[in-house]
Amino acid sequence: MKLFRRAWVIPAACLVFLAAGPQVAQGLVLDWDTVSWTPGSLNNSYDLTGDAVNDITVTITSQNPGIFTNDPATGMQTPAINQSLTGGLSPAQNSLDIAANLHTNSNLTVQLSFGGQYGIATNVSFTIFDIDITTNSDIISTIYGVAPDGTQVAATITGLGSAITPSGTLLTQKLTGNAASPDNSGNGNATISFGTTAITDVFFTFGNNAGAPRYQDIAIGDISFTPVPEINPAAASAISCLLALGAMMAFHRRAKLKARHLPQGGS
Questions:
Q1: pLDDT in tens, 10-31
Q2: Which of 72, 195, 209, 227 would be 137's cystine partner, CB 3.0–4.6 Å?
Q3: 28-227: what CATH class?
Q4: What is the C-alpha separation between 213 and 103, in angstroms, rounded?
Q5: Buried b (16+ CB within 10 A) or exposed e, 70-85
Q6: Does the pLDDT at position 38 exceed 80?
Q7: Domain boundaries for CATH 2.60.120 within the chain
Q8: Quick one: which of 256, 251, 249 has its CA closest to 11?
Q9: Average pLDDT, the chain
Q10: Whole-angstrom distance between the N-terminal and C-terminal Cα of the chain?
Q11: Are 238 and 14 in contact (CB under 8 A)?
């Protein structure tokens, strides 16, 4: 009986672990109003939870690094955080402004990489502002996410402004500017998202339709995503605890059966 009573000490401990519950993933937002970006830099990482682990890295590359130029409204070397392109938001908010002299075979690529313990995120979503015609048409193409196994994942594109003509499907989707859009308008907006699909990175290319180098610009609005949660130590302990309970109860049953079949001593 003492063994049986001691066995029930384990369920009490298990209840303590289970009460902690599973760790629920919390959505994060890379809010350009709350972070910094050195004008002209091409790679920045952000810890959004204060745990000393970067949650997202933004990288901008080009075959020709000399294409990046100043934003005429602020004079800032881009990429830079400013309010030159606001996407029609009211009140206006900061965005990541990317201005460049683009031309044939000299596009630039934007990459979003997710960090945390596993480097995987779901519910990734952001809006690109000011896809339009300046001199040449802005073109956003090669838009995809990367699944943990390396598979390319097609984006869902919504909220298209009137200055954008979409074409292609799935991994061949392309957004082409068809008219000029005011800098404070939503006419050049397009929202890129990936729903509940788990991804490690997002890529898209910013280019133009043809011709000599011409000034073009877009901006990236706030980026929302949900990191894949870490395994909760409390939940893992609870599982181990219940397994231990099962083993102890099985041992207890075997001990009782054995005791019933032992020869009884006599006087």
A1: 455 444 444 444 455 689 999 9
A2: 209
A3: mainly beta
A4: 4
A5: ebeeeebebbbbbbbb
A6: yes
A7: 28-227
A8: 249
A9: 84
A10: 25
A11: yes
Tokens of 3: 């063994």
pTM of the complete model beyond 0.85: no
Dihedral sign for Cα atoms in the order 142, 143, 149, 151: negative
The two tokens of residue 86 are 């606001």
- The answer to whether 227 and 116 have CB atoms below 8 angstroms apart is yes
Dig out the tokens for 106 from the structure.
């000299």
Per-residue three-class SS string for the chain: CHHHHHHCHHHHHHHHHHHHCCCCCCCEEECCCCCCCCCCCCEEEECCCCCCCCCEEEEEEECCHHHECECCCCCCECCEEECCCCCCCCCCCCEEEEEEEECCCCCEEEEEEECCCCCCEEEEEEEEECCCECCCEEEEEEEEEECCCCCEEECEEECCCCCEEEECCHHHCEEEECCCCCCCCCCCCEEEECCCCCECEEEEEEEECCCCCEEEEEEECCEEEEECCCCCHHHHHHHHHHHHHHHHHHHHHHHHHHHHHCCCCCC
Looking at residue 220, its amino acid is I
Structure tokens at 115: 């960090």
> What are the structure tokens assigned to 155, written together?
């984006």
